[in-house]
Fold these 2 entries.
Entry 1:
Amino acid sequence: MQQQREDFVATLTHDLKTPILAANRAIKLLMEGDFGAVGESQSRILETIHQSNEALYKLVQTLLDVYRLDSGAKQLCLVEHDLSETITHLVDELQPLALARRVDLSARLPEFARTVLCDVEEIRRVVQNLLDNSLKFTPPGGSISVTLTQSGDVTRVSVQDSGKGISEEDKPKLFQRFWQAAGSGRYYASTGLGLYLCRKIVELHGGVIWCESTLGQGSTFYFTIDSASFVQESEQAGA
Ligand SMILES: Nc1ncnc2c1ncn2[C@@H]1O[C@H](COP(=O)(O)OP(=O)(O)OP(=O)(O)O)[C@@H](O)[C@H]1O
Ligand SMILES: [Mg+2]
């Protein structure tokens, strides 16, 4: 029964993607004036519909990712990659948002980072989710920094913020599916799946993810990727 229910939701979520994308395309064309001139108030309404649609699309994608990771169907696409590049891109991309929220966003990277065997898109999602949270839960005037350190085979990324922090009672629940602290759900289309996905992706890489935080003083989320664990796994697979 449980399996059938999960399969049904996965199929439904998947089938929602096409109409959402089609609607998005139509809205874009309308906004660009392909069907005639658009007035200022109409344009505002179209922009709102477009944003809601984007949020819905993101939600559908997230749900699909959860089912893919939970069912074990997700295969990593591993390549040697310099994570400092991913971090720099993300920080540059999010800088306008941080600026608008008057939050200082910076990266601390080693001068010469070694490459790491990882699925670049997936690891990018992990850092993006952590940054997304820090931006959500850090009030104006605060700061966020992303740090990359490497020691032996272990590469560690941390995202530190001076935000609202997490209580001792809430810490064990952070990485659970759909969990949100009381009062965090007011953000549009936020589901409590971000950290769950982060944990799944990091674990698929043979790594660990954890959080250190003091309520009212900020949080630091860490994750590691251990190159040695991949070597062992591929040796075992080859044996
Ligand atoms: N940096 C942070 N500071 C304070 N609380 C946090 C932080 N990151 C996560 N949390 C708490 O953990 C909860 C779960 O985070 P998670 O990323 O899984 O979900 P979300 O951000 O609420 O939704 P989504 O990621 O789906 O948009 C958040 O709702 C919030 O209560
Ligand atoms: Mg989140």
Entry 2:
Amino acid sequence: MLLTRQQKNPETIILKHSSLNDISRILIRTTNWIGDAVMTTPALRAVRETFPEADITVVANPLVAQLFESHPDCDGVIVYDRKGVDRGPLGFLRFCRRLRREHFDLAILFQNAIEAALLTFLAGIPKRLGYTHEHRRLLLTHPVGVTPQLKTLHHTDYYLNILSRYGVVASEKAQRLSLRPDEQTWAQKNMPPGPVAAINPGAAYGSAKRWLPQRFAAVADRLVEEYGLSIILTGGPAEIEIGQDIASAMKSPCQNFIGKTNVRQLMALLANSKLMITNDSGPMHMGAAFQTPLVAVFGPTDHTTTSPWSDNSRIVRHDVGCSPCLLRQCPTDHRCMESVTAEDVMLAVESLMGRPA
Ligand code: SF4
């Protein structure tokens, strides 16, 4: 074990495992969901701080890769498109060969699938660190055992925990995303003038996580009337219909960006909003990373492990016996979401923003 640096608390000495000396090229296999990838960013910073001289490359699917463009804690991104050009066994082997040519010294696996461990093993990366999910133990040189307690950790701590076993720690645990100046300019040019609230009514995981469009519309109208905010709708192509339902149910006008932005533009919209109303979703975690004040409606998911990682947020949920079920579609009456009213959400807005003037 090698003494590398101290935390802010002078009594806490951080030890990097000596087997991680002489690392100059690091591959990070990140997660396949945007929200999870945002929650890995404190762990990514821990890697950067522990290996300040190393070149760090993130491997991600085409959507998640956009999060890490121009990110201060990595030096590059390699897109792994396993549903496109890298599809099938031949595509997988071709991608392994591509990684082999990069001569990485260390692979860190935030993704839990056995495929991630196999990929880095076949790519000839000599050190491979990750959880032992899916019988990956034999493929890892630096395994981290899976315990029942892991399920209770917030996902941000879950990813940090992979690294802390080997003395790779961050000086602070804030999530971080970054935008280029031209992306900020794009948002400012395209958003309505004045303070804006982003309504984000989708959730890629499934319909069980979605609050009702009519209630999003009722909240949006009240934000216009009571707080003088302009409204934008945000989301991906799969949520176009939901956006149209909300826009037509609203009395006030709104600007509908759903299905019209890429991930970087969505990030810029959320970073420049004064408030966000959202389901538990990838964009929710983006908003939290930018410290945009936000209210999140939770139903079937576990609000203790995937809550927004921000003091500038409020969660609205009702205790129903079947939650968290973690199902994509509700098999019963969707009471976890049906029971949340527009008034509940407005009370959460008030606790964040104060009473309307
Ligand atoms: S089963 Fe219960 S927690 Fe799950 S989606 Fe339906 S109402 Fe919500």
